Input
Amino acid sequence: MNNAIGRRLYYLKATGEVIQDTGERTGWVVETTLEQDFETYRSLHERVPETVGMIQLEYGAYAEDYAQGGVITRIDLGTLKPLFNYPDPTDPETPHEPQPPLTEQLTSLKTENETLKSRVSDVEMTLTEILFS
Output
């Protein structure tokens, strides 16, 4: 079977800490079961399955974030979305707080920027009307 299988992220339900990232697979691969993963990966095998959560990402999800050096280190337990750590080229040794994917932050900032530009335009029009009426 020629497949493209997205990565599975196993995390501790108590903290959201990612304990196993299965990685993406493509080609002649078959999707494994959760039971098979618990047998295959040492980080899962040593855990009580009820204490571990799992999310599966689509193949290629967050590719740009990975390309920028991002690593998923935690799952936001409120939203069940991955949180990334990104290397700081000026201070690579200092750990940083996990954050939403940069691609999502960029989309949010673009939307906020468009909203602010629209508001500025509205204020400019109002001032023009006041000054020239």
